[in-house]
Amino acid sequence: xxxxxxxxxxxxxxxxxxxxxxxxxxxxxxxxxxxxxxxxxxxxxxxxxxxxxxxxxxxxxxxxxxxxxxxxxxxxxxxxxxxxxxxxxxxxxxxxxxxxxxxxxxxxxxxxxxx
Length: 115
Prior knowledge:
A hairpin with a 6-residue loop joins strand 4 and strand 5. The chain starts with a strand and ends with a strand. The model has no long low-confidence stretch (mean pLDDT 97). The protein is mainly β.
């Protein structure tokens, strides 16, 4: 059974930082492109950042320059370093493993940015 387990969410003040982690088990991590998505209440889930199997990254315009996605294949883990957080970043953050043909989602972790 493939599982993605997320951690690192929480409550932070505007301008603060959080680091999210997502660890895959039950499959070969290096076979997947990885991504972070978020969903705010009443809104569609949106792509925040992605990293290909080859290590190429991409970001939503809204987080470019503030967030960094990285992967450590030796630890089967993808990270999202979030700096300069804004209230608009408040959402449930989900990691995703994109395979061929199957995709997998993490359980979600709440990020709240508030003073």
